[in-house]
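Example 3.
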Amino acid sequence: MSTHTPGPAPETTRIHNIGYRNYEGRRLGRAYVRRSLYSQSLRGAYGLGRSAKSKVLPMILFALMCVPAAIVVAVAVATKAKGLPLEYTSYAIFTQPIIGLYLASQAPQSVSRDLRFKTVPLYFSRPIERSDYVLAKFAAMASALFILTGIPLVILFAGSLLAKMDFSDQAAGFGQGLVSVALMSVLFGGIALVLAALTPRRGFGVAAIIATLTITSVAVTVIQEIARATDALDVIEWFGLFSPTTLIDGVQTAFLGAVSGFPGGQGPGTGVGVIYLLTVLALIAGSYAVLMRRYRKAGL
Amino acid sequence: MYNPTVARLTYRAVLGRRRAAILFILPALLLVMAVAVRSFNGADDQIAASLLGGFGIAAMVPLIGVIAGTGAIGPEIDDGSIVYLLSKPLKRSSIIFTKLIVAIAVTMAFSAIPMLIAGFVLNGNGQQIAIAYTVAALVASIAYSAVFLLLGTVSRNAVVIGLIYAIVWESVFGSLVEGARTLSVQQWALALAEDIAGEGLVGSDVGLPLAIVLLASVTTLATWYAGRKLRVLKLAGEE
């Protein structure tokens, strides 16, 4: 490049209008972003809209959740049983390991990748608030979990009607079951999202979620068994407060007419049940608060 | 075969920051339970065996094995920094061997030592229970580390697959289908414990000679195949 001699700028310099136009259409706004984020996260939780490889695991786990229900229904229809061999409320407790695995595989997918690849600031460059992002992710995870735990109950209910069982009995049980899995979905989804958001690295979040959901319930059950073996029956209901699964078990035993899965059926009564319910609600509110705090410095 | 630099880097990766926290939490949980049970209840061989077996061997050892085994290689493959290691004049098999040693050491340290302490807290090693379960934990550590290290080189979802094996296969399937128990690291390790502990306290579905053969062959096969896998490793993008 040749050097110019310094001098006054040539007078030919000017800005051309080359026809860029402003956007004058409707702006979709916060609600739209929130809705899209929700639906994309919910679809993503089942691998829809992602690669074929990432559909495999959630779909297998979903099938694993439904197969026992289908078997139960098939047996009940074939033997013309008067009632289902298991309660609606005990189904989610029974399949808890699968729910734990589903959460452990999908909750990190939902939030960790945005954090790991620092795409969160891009979301916040749109007209959304922190609460929009957190609420959308929270709702999507809870909905995904509700689908996972609710569909088997629908199968059970449909099967019980096919087998001509008493409608009002079954409807009541089905309703109680749905309330219980809804509460469970929000609680588990919140806990899993918090752990996933705090541990963006792949693999580690998975282990943390499993440890919190499954291992605590194993530990609590072992302790409760030991308490029963030593005839300390009244402490059993208090130990149930220390793991998410036994919390849900306690709440549904106290309020939703479930048969407790605690050793010896020593579930909490209404009085202690209130403490269970309060703990569950506090945990849900707490996980929302932690998530909000986590995203205060997004992208870091 | 053993490369101290690779080992140092792997230790840093496995024990770094928050990853170490979960490794401490699980043994701490076992010890707290052991102390609580002992103070509630006094020493009881049957309860000691059920706590060490039901929580320790069934839940704690596999989980620590998953974290240490996949953590030794998974994150490196994941963020692509493994290429810097692979471009060094080191045999791929010696990289795997070193990482295996580290994974085994970490798993042993975080599972067998708490197991021994918990055993002594629970019943003072009555009927050799503490020793029996510690040996089981040591042996299981080796096999789990090798298997999960292999998983870490094969799949990006290694942790989930490892957990599915540990939870669904060993616990749920194992309790329903008799045959599934023959193919479980947990049962092979318990076969050794059965031999050491007093009568009727530890049960295993696998005979001791078969268990030893299976343990040794699974460990060698997994390590060999992980080394092969690392030689043809393809770095894929995020799915």
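The mean pLDDT of chain B is 85. Residues 4-231 of chain B form one domain.
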